[in-house]
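Morning!

This is the sequence you dropped in the shared folder:
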Amino acid sequence: MAHADRNNEFGEGVVVIIGGSGGIGSAITRAFVERGVDTVFTYHGNETRAQKLLGSLGETRARVEARQLALETEGTAATLLNELTQRFGRLIGVVYAAGPMIKVGYVAKLTPQDWQRVFSLDTHACFNLVHAALPILTKQGGGSLVAISTDQLARPEPRGVLSAAPKGAIEMLFRAVAVESARFGIRANTVRPGWIDAGMTDAGIGGQMSEEAMKASLARIPMGRMGTPHDVAEAVVFLTSERAKYITGIAIPVDGGMQL
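The structure's back. C-alpha cells below.
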C-alpha cells in the first residue's frame, strides 16, 4: 500500500538533490527517502558527511545513493543526470540545495573576488544544473525543479548581500523556466528559508555574527524562534509531488512570518 501511495504522489523515477548532505539538504534527502522515493544526493567535497548521512538512513524501501559533484565544472551535471535517467527511467524532480559558505559584510567592504566567487559557486553552478536538466525533463514529458533560495529577497539583512544576490538571480532563472517550459510539463519553484537552525545560519553563519546581531534577527520573527531543516524539507517535498502539479513559478517562504 505504501508503494502505491508513493506512485500516486511522485510516480516512478528518482529525485536528485544537489547539496543533499548539507544542513538543509540532508533533511530534504531524508524526507524523500522516508517516503520511499528513490533518491540520489550529491556533495561537493565532504564525503565523510555524505557517508554519515547514508549510514543514518538505515533500512529503507527506497534506493539511495551519494555522488560527488562539482556543478561549477561545465558538463558534470549533464553527465550525472543522463546516467541517472538511464538507470532509473525518469527524473521525478531535481532539487538545488547547494551553495558556498558566504562571507557576511557590507557592500562597501566586499571585494570583486568575493562577489565573483559566490556567483560562480552558486548562481552559475545552478544554471549549469538547470541547463542540463531541461532537455531531459522536456523529453520525458515534464518534472519538477526546486531551488532553495532565501527570505532575504523579501526583507534584506544588513551585510547579507552575498547570500541574497546570487539567490535573486536563481529565482529569476526559475521564473523564466516556469514561463518558458510549462508547456512541456516542467514546473519550477523556489523555497525561501528564513532563520533555520542548520547549515550557514547555525552559530551565526559560521560564527560571523555576534550574539547581539543574532538576537536582533530572531526578534524580527513573529513566531519567535528559528525554523528547522524539516520545515524546509516538507515544502520541497510538496512542490516536487503531484499535489503541486498546478503550481509553478512561485517562491514559498518558510520563515515563521519574518517577511511580514
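Headline: Residues 2-254 form a domain with the Rossmann fold fold (CATH 3.40.50.720).

More detail when I'm at my desk.
O.
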